[in-house]
Specification:
- Helix content is about 45%, strand content about 15%.
- The protein is α/β, with parallel strands linked by helices.
- It has a single domain, classed as TIM Barrel, CATH 3.20.20.70.
- Helix 5 packs parallel to helix 6 and helix 8 packs parallel to helix 9.
- The relative contact order is 0.14.
Amino acid sequence: MSGSQEARKKLARDKILVALDVTSIEKALELVHLLKDYVGGFKVGLELCTNCGTPQVVEKISQAGGQVFLDLKFKDIPNTVAGASRAAARDGILMFNVHCDGGSEMMRASVAAVSRQSTHRPLVIGVTVLTSIDQRIMNEEVGVQGDVGAHAVHLAQLAKSAGLDGVVCSPREVALIKSACGRDFLTVVPGVRPTWAETGDQKRVMTPSEAVAAGADYLVIGRPITSPPQEIGSPVEAAKRIAAELN
């Protein structure tokens, strides 16, 4: 393989963050050991951290060679989120997130807290509109009127003005957010499903190649890799197949 081919392969692989939506640290570490050479990092969220404790989860995954996206979606008063952000700024954390609709003051407090760290400064990412929420749910249940895409762009612009590094958004909003906030503003994208995987509870989805073509910087992919269809094979084969699709 040529050097340029190797670089493209690495770039594609590094875009993939595997969602470790499991209940035990043992199962999480099994997946980390299997996949760490084929993906860019691992998302850990409420299920795993509540079951096993956030510090232990981050430490053990980091020691096993995996970078961590800490997906705890902080949303509270600014002082509380600042304290949580300081705690999250530990070695092994690639990025963590806060809810954009917590407001500008809260987001600025988070950025300020981690910017004072003398050693490690993780990326701070804002959550726009959850990918389980569609137009009807946003308008009728959440009570936010207007178009879901326009609302996601509004929240992304708010996040950028507060100093965040990027946002979590549906793949359908990536191009809109890149246009509004610039190419260097990161987009972390769940709701990514290969054509051979079920969509599950995600509403606003795209395939991996479609999401990257739209400008996605990171793809959060869980079940299609951790529990792939039998005809795809192992988690490693699923990860390799997605990376190949991105190339």
